[in-house]
Amino acid sequence: MKSEARGVLRKMHSRFENPVRYQILLSDMVVPLNDLLEKQIKLEYSGTIYCINCGRKSRKSFNQGYCYPCFQRLAECDGCIIHPEKCHFDQGTCREPAWGERFCMQDHIVYLANSSGLKVGITRATQIPTRWIDQGATQALAIIRVRSRLQSGILEVMFKQYVSDRTNWRAMLKGEAEPLKMEEEADRLLKECDSELKELAENFGFFAISVLNGIASVGINYPVIKYPEKVTSFNFDKDPVVEGTLLGIKGQYLIFDTGVINLRRFSGYEVQLSH
Q1: pLDDT score for 1
Q2: Cα 1 from chain centroid?
Q3: What is the pLDDT of residues 135-174, one digit of tens each?
Q4: Do residues 136 and 262 share a domain?
Q5: Contact (CB, 8 A) for 125 and 106
Q6: Burial 170-209 (b: 16+ CB within 10 A, else e)
């Protein structure tokens, strides 16, 4: 191993190609990952964590990379990010109204994805297809466009009565999900929720909910040479050295011949990459 890069880890950047192109971010250093497939790689955690917002040292990482003060202060760390149906921007209690205006009070997409089976999810319109790639979806279909994060969250809660909103990450990492007829799944779901959608449209306003008809589903291929038969997960907090032959990249996971690691989970960790 000769090449080295050292810095504070952030979530991987991805580019929608066939297959998806990935880059690992270590502070200001950017390392293309697809070129490292089938090569021996070592990731070594220094024992130091830096907040990905303010940069201060932190004894512990909160919400995937934040120090405790930022975790308590920032709107992006509030509970309504996990539960968008609880968005309280319109009540005037958003932690950072300017941030909420920029990220929550804009168009959102309700979508169906197939990562370990059919699931429903939401994301900002500008985050497609990045959100789908981060979840390891092999198929995805945008079904509804709304005007705000709150509206998308309310729709997601409604759809969760009929379809899961979870990804089985172990199943996702063991191979590609069984292909689904996404357009048919969307038609079925929309018909089941027709009366509820009409009621929500009356509450939100006539132009708030736009059903996206005639849009084709998207197929996503990942740079994976071999999927693991058994998924063993690495944890920098328990073992600071992760080493092995890189066999694939999917979602925010690196797949080695020795196990897998979710890099996004360890955002803010100071890491050295050798290959």
Answers
A1: 66
A2: 31
A3: 999 999 999 999 999 999 999 999 999 999 999 999 999 9
A4: no
A5: yes
A6: eebbeebbeebebbebbeebeeebeeebeebbeebeeeeb
Q: pTM of the entire structure?
A: 0.95
Cα separation values, 240 from 46, 142, 233, 234, 270, Å: 7, 39, 13, 9, 11
CB atoms within 10 A of CB 134: 16
Give the number of domains in the chain: 2
What domain range includes position 239?
4-58+223-274
Q: Domain for residue 67, yes or no? A: no
Whole-number Å distance between alpha carbons of 2 and 5: 10
Q: Helix-strand-coil percent breakdown of the chain, rounded to 5? A: 30, 30, 40
Question: Is the residue at 178 inside a domain?
Answer: yes
- Asked whether residue 173 is domain-assigned, the answer is yes
Mean pLDDT of 260-265: 97
What percent of the chain is modeled with pLDDT above 70?
99
CA angle 17, 225, 185 (to 5 degrees): 60
Residue 88 tokens read as 């309280």
Q: Are residues 227 and 198 in the same domain?
A: no
Q: What mean pLDDT is reported for the chain?
A: 96
